Amino acid sequence: MELKTLTFIVVGLTFALYIGIAIWARARTTGDFYVAGKGIHPVANGMATAADWMSAASFISMAGLIAFLGYGGSVFLMGWTGGYVLLAMLLAPYLRKFGKFTVPEFVGDRYYSQTARIVAVICLIVASVTYVIGQMRGIGVAFSRFMEVDFSTGLFTGMTIVFIYAVLGGMKGITYTQIAQYCVLIFAYTIPAIFISLNLTGNPIPQLALGSTMADGSGVYLLDKLDLIVTDLGFREYSTASNGNMLNMFLYTFSLMIGTAGLPHVIIRFFTVPRVKDARYSAGWALVFIAILYTTAPAVGAMARLNLIETIQTGPVGTADGNIQMSETPDWMDRWATTGLLSWEDKNGDGRIQYYDEKGLGDKAAEYGWAGNEMTKVDRDIMVLANPEIANLPNWVIALVAAGGIAAALSTAAGLLLAIASAISHDLLKGVFKPDISEKNELLASRIAMAFAIGVAAYFGLNPPGFAAQVVALAFGLAASSIFPVLMMGIFDKRANSTGAIAGMLVGLGVTLLYIFWFKGWFFVPGTNMLPNNADNWLLGISPEAFGAVGAAFNFVTAFVVSRATKAPPEHIQHLVEDIRVPRGAMGASGH
Amino acid sequence: MTTPQDSRMAEYWKRNVRLMVILLSIWFVVSYLFGIVLVTPLNAISLGGYKLGFWFAQQGSMYVFVALIFVYAAKMNALDKEFDVHED
């Protein structure tokens, strides 16, 4: 069957599944809508959390990033998984014991301050909206690439599906849909990886294949071979290429970890399980399901890089016939060339393509008769999507990868939209403006807020702000420097008071934003940056993406010092903290 | 005034924090020490086709993270029972 038809059928089937689940899992109460009635099994919640967490970026972009960064890509692998250890030990069980619906609600109650709650709502909305824009792009791109419909049609189709199951089912509908989406995306990710591992090394398990010898009988390890060929072509050695200096790698990883632990749409997932005990296990299951993809990604990255280079560099480096002829490029290269994401030109007129690093290879290039790198564009994002084609896998696998990419984007978008909607209807409307609203009206308001959030997200998806790529750093910076410290202090420091918390959040946020804007432009307006954004200008070589950890440190220190210099929190708050530290017992202080 | 119940809860909290500190030290060692700070010396050792430091950074640390959460959950659930603060 033709690929396009097959893709329509596979994607259509997954959509029918999501809508079927939505009708089955309608939300009837605000409890259903915000936290799925707190009745989700920990394993099921773990799977839903994994789908919620793994976005279009994890599915499509991460392996491509690793392919080109090599060892330096480790910051994403460790950063985006290690945060779950912090969540499981420092936040999830206690917030579950607290037993409310949203993150700002905890902040507002614990710090007995509407101001603190509103600051938390603002941080949450900014972090979530910036994050959801990326998902909208992912949905539009997946549709337009695979189904050959235009970007906006793809975006509207995806939005309509999310609208149906998120507005109808709230957290309950989203959770069960995310479980289905996890199955689709993990299947779509691992099947091509298994085939490629088998092709290259004869070992079907990608995690082991990456450490195995090549299947060509040479007895050379895959990684050694990759290291050798990339250095011969002037690139940095794959297994040691660092991402900035050691301090930068350290802080980058740390920022991503505490950013992950502080992202509200991830935290609220732990409100949906029945007991504190379940919250602890659920974080473990979430990480199991995430790690299946995250430990496969380095294999996908390394193998994609090797396949790409070997496609072009067919013989020994520097020999006259060592490179592929222009007329013999495989079909997948030609297909991706039409998208503009892959391009090449014959600079030295030898009828062959050379792919190398001009700076790294230096004078040798001239000796070989090469006149510059001829792969003029290799977009990192094509690596995962082109993988099944590179490995000559059947069309149904390619169709599945399309469905997987869409599932990853939809599941994350839905989780973020719920976090935004509940912050508006529960924290702002019920919490601040209209505390006496009836349950029925609050449920209606949260549905309207959800519909509104979807509209805003769709608008930004169609008219992306010029800074779409940079805002992800902002989302993590915000979560790391404001939300994570304030939650952790709320649980572990009984003496932390409202003045300290608000001062901490503002200082943490301020320092982080200042550093990001300094190098990326004020509010990301191009040309307004104070210094060029490169390692020579960065403070101690710390990149703006890695600065969230420093912001968090400022937040902690400020909150600690200010809390001690001002009045201790009232006694009922100290009791509240004692209460959330143990799984059983009345929640006297918060039971209003 | 501290009651016996209060000091029991203080003990429960102390044991919880101690467990957390131990597990988070392991968390720190496998990722930040083995995966970043000591990556160069560890790379001299090989694990199959992997350099050891590289393996910790791209595989090993994640396996350890998963194990840490399950150990924490199991130990804490046992601690809840010991101090009779578990639910149901």
Features:
heterodimer, A: 592 residues, mainly alpha, Sodium/glucose cotransporter, two-stranded antiparallel ribbon, 2 strands, 1% strand, disordered C terminus, B: 88 residues, two-stranded antiparallel sheet, 3 helices, elongated
Q: What is the makeup of the main sheet of chain A? A: 2 strands, antiparallel
Question: How many domains in all of chain B?
Answer: 1
Corresponding CATH superfamily of chain A: Sodium/glucose cotransporter
Strand content of chain A: under 5%
Give the amount of beta strand of chain B, in percent: under 5%
Mean pLDDT of chain B, as a whole number? 89
- How many separate helices of chain A? 23
Polypeptide structure, described:
The complex is a heterodimer of chains A (592) and B (88). Chain A has a single domain (3-306, 390-580), classed as Sodium/glucose cotransporter. Chain A has 23 helices and two strands. Chain A has helices at residues 3-24, 30-35, 42-53, 56-69, 74-98, 103-110, 114-147, 151-201, 206-209, 222-232, 246-262, 264-267, 276-312, 331-339, 358-361, 364-368, 382-390, 395-433, 439-462, 471-492, 498-520, 548-565, 571-580; strands spanning 342-343, 377-378. In chain A, strands 1-2 form a two-stranded antiparallel ribbon. The N and C termini of chain A lie far apart (61 Å). The relative contact order of chain A is 0.17. Chain B has one domain (7-82). In chain B, strands 1-2 form a two-stranded antiparallel sheet. In chain B, α1 (4-37) packs antiparallel against α3 (52-82). Chain B is elongated. The mean pLDDT of chain B is 89.
